[in-house]
Prior knowledge:
With about 110 residues, the protein is mainly beta. Helices cover about 0% and strands about 55% of the residues.
Amino acid sequence: VQLQASGGGLVQAGGSLRLFCAASGRTSSLFMGWFRQAPGKEREFVTSIARSDSIPHYADSVKGRFTISRNNAKNMVSLQMNSLKPEDTAVYYCNNLGGRWYWGQGTLVTVSS
């Protein structure tokens, strides 16, 4: 299974970006989500969404600004990020739970003040 993340880039504070992550190969994708890692910090949870109920879960820091969605037919997950802040600057990693956790290569999001 390979996860291909895309959509990162440079944006001004208050702007928006949409990230995408496509899974290739066989995975049940029980959970799909995003983590991020800012320079000098540990990787942290951002959001996830389960296949069973499609109820999203968010870190407090992104609630109300980020929206996760999934397309089961295409085995894809996306992350709409609005009202971006400089502290959202990080490498964003998508992950996918099938028989085990799979991770994408990361896509860089830079928010300028």
